[in-house]
UniProtKB/TrEMBL annotation:
Protein name according to UniProt: Cellulose biosynthesis protein BcsQ
SUPFAM superfamilies referenced in this protein's UniProt entry, alphabetically: P-loop containing nucleoside triphosphate hydrolases (SSF52540)
Domain CobQ/CobB/MinD/ParA nucleotide binding: 10-215
Protein source organism: Chryseobacterium rhizoplanae
Superkingdom in the source lineage: Bacteria
PANTHER family: P-LOOP CONTAINING NUCLEOSIDE TRIPHOSPHATE HYDROLASE (PTHR13696), PARA FAMILY PROTEIN CT_582 (PTHR13696:SF52)
InterPro entries associated with the record: CobQ/CobB/MinD/ParA_Nub-bd_dom, DNA_Partitioning_ATPase, P-loop_NTPase
Length: 255
């Protein structure tokens, strides 16, 4: 019988690339681990590119080259007195066993494990892995192809997997990302009604479009946004409503 506390497993998952899954994984992992006191681990299952694993390598080089970021990192790690969260390379069909081995061998059990999963349902082991995730967050954009793909994927998860299979999924939440203020409000209202009619859950917070999502640290930067070593600057979070997203996210996952 297991007596050890089990981590909450979370994935930003959808069937389309380029909508922000890896970015949100990085942002939330860094905010929770470095700013909010949670113990975090990340399993990068996005074979073969392993973008988060490679991002950590770039972040380390960036911090060493930038005196401001170097001081910021030193101050942070002295204050929180814990290491950077680990990022492991894995594959979707092996990650559950690897998580178990990691948790069993850890002195400090992580509060949260984030999975960065491939964007295709055809990947070996992906559905089995998803049934063992506790919370799934799916970024959507006002693009018909992205939306239809995500809605059908989420519909399968909720109405097939969750109803017919033993799953550990507690809830699945869609949220609007890359919201362009110039787009018609009616467009979002109509799409939101479709989501509601399907019985799917849509988060209240919408994330505005920002070039920062596609931008990592720079050698001369004084602040960071997307980094695996430092949490995003609070002012930058506020500008794209990510501060509100964090609050809503924490209410949902109840850490």
């Amino acid at each position: 019988m297991k007596t050890k506390k089990q981590p909450t497993i979370i994935a930003f998952s959808t069937q389309k690339g380029g909508v922000g899954k890896s970015t949100f994984t990085t942002l939330m992992a860094s905010i929770l681990h470095y700013r909010m006191g949670y113990q975090v681990a990340v399993f990068d299952c996005d074979f073969p590119q392993y973008s988060l694993f490679q991002m950590r390598d770039r972040d380390l080089k960036m911090v060493m080259q930038n005196e401001i970021l170097k001081k910021m990192a030193h101050k942070q790690f002295t204050r929180i007195n814990k290491k950077a969260y680990p990022i492991f390379q894995s594959k979707a069909d092996q990650v559950l066993e690897e998580i178990e081995v990691y948790v069993d061998g850890s002195e400090t059990t992580p509060d949260v494990i984030f999975l960065d999963l491939p964007g295709t349902v055809n990947t070996a082991g992906i559905l089995k892995t998803l049934t063992n995730v506790n919370y799934i967050f799916s970024p959507i954009t006002a693009d018909r192809v992205v939306l239809e793909s995500t809605l059908s994927f989420t519909n399968v998860l909720i109405n097939v997997l969750m109803k017919e299979t033993q799953t550990r999924i507690r809830s699945i939440h869609l949220f609007w990302n890359q919201v362009d203020g110039r787009e018609r409000t009616m467009l979002y209202k109509n799409y939101s009604k479709v989501i509601s009619d399907l019985g799917l859950q849509l988060m209240e917070t919408t994330i505005t479009d920002s070039k920062r999502f596609r931008k990592e640290g720079e050698a001369v930067a004084k602040t960071v946004f997307r980094s695996t070593l430092l949490p995003a600057d609070p002012k930058l979070l506020t500008q794209c409503r990510l501060d509100r997203f964090v609050e809503e996210f924490l209410k949902i996952v109840k850490l």
